[in-house]
Amino acid sequence: MTRMRLTKGTFLASLAAGALAACSATSPSSSTTYGTGGSSLPGGTGGFFIPPGTGGEFGTGGFGEPFGTGGQFLSPSSPILNGVVTAVTPPPPISGGTLLVLADGATAVAADPDRDQIYVVDIGAGNVARIALQAGDQPGRLVQDKAGAVHVVLRGAGALATIDPRPGKVTLRRATCATPRGIAYDAAKDRLYLACASGELQTFTPAGATPSSTWTLAEDLRDVVIDGDALLVTRFRSAEVLTVDPTTGVVTDTARPPAFSNPAVHQGMSYEPGVAWRAVPAPDGGLVMVHQRGMYGTVQTTPGGYGGLSPCDSIVHTAVCRMKRGAKVDAGPALPGFVLPVDVAVSPDGKQVAMVAAGNGHAQLNGRAGCSPPTWATSPPSGRRAAGWMTGTVPLPARRARSAGPAGRRATT
Description:
Blueprint: E1 2-7, E2 48-50, E3 65-67, E4 99-101, E5 107-112, E6 117-122, E7 127-132, E8 139-144, E9 150-154, E10 159-164, E11 169-175, E12 180-186, E13 191-196, E14 200-204, E15 213-216, E16 221-227, E17 230-235, E18 241-244, E19 251-255, E20 271-281, E21 287-295, E22 316-323, E23 341-346, E24 352-357, E25 375-377, E26 392-393
Antiparallel strand pairs: 1-24, 1-25, 2-3, 4-5, 5-6, 6-7, 8-9, 9-10, 10-11, 12-13, 13-14, 14-15, 16-17, 17-18, 18-19, 20-21, 21-22, 23-24, 25-26
């Protein structure tokens, strides 16, 4: 997991020289410096080998690193996994958004879709209460209402569960659309808004057994964010953000993160936005989205076609973007090493941001990252394994795919 400290400032990415320098849309160079001492990472057999050495592009000391298998070239930013684990019962897709710190600041509620359980944690004492759900419920995203109840999306059951975290029990279970995904709570209206991959946007009262309204928007809806007098609803594969009237369900605007290009990144090819894994409210309005973008063009099957020595040359980028109504949106630099970025969170005071990359066991980052206003400074917590640590300026980004994922999982939908 990556944690970044955010301070007030302009929201446009500003990159320094380092591993992320070439990942900026405006960076003039694609050089990469890996520092001194380096590291030796396990790789395949018969692959491409960069020997240790002194000086040169990889810095003093360099590193010795075998890449690829069977003689195929593999980028230094390729995933570094800790091995593959095959579960007897295939786990559900990884979806993110499954951890919520309650309003009291002392209690956390976590959904566990692998085990169909909800955990209520006393943060200070470390006590954990478990709430068992039905097999196949796959609890996912969750929100708390002003009465203190927690509402949990049951992705596998097409349902919404309400729990009382104090005694730790389910107080209500109601049917929803068949493909519930994201949920948000509007305290001013005392309403729950549920986004469905099948295209419905449903509203519930916290105690309502049936939807108050069901509006049909576009398919592949993902997350819902309350933004003043409007709803911001994301679409998963296209990374579109729909602005929706919360009283009528009418879509009043549609936006996407901008395309990305840099002459120093993959021969200047354009990267188009897509796959909005997670969107959360920004502290001062709008949303923060972690998404991916893909190279728009022909993928060459020769060495370097999928990526080169620069960690920015991969054909798929992870990026974080701030989108706010009426504000200019800038393409952020790529975050190399962050494979399958399933979750992002912003602290209530807007000073800390966390990202989770589920497809990589580790990520080695130096330099700066960005996307559109605040400044982030980072340092890894002691004893905590992190996906990667960065310092920089960042502008405050259906069906189950069966592509390979960590621990034998499918990628999420």
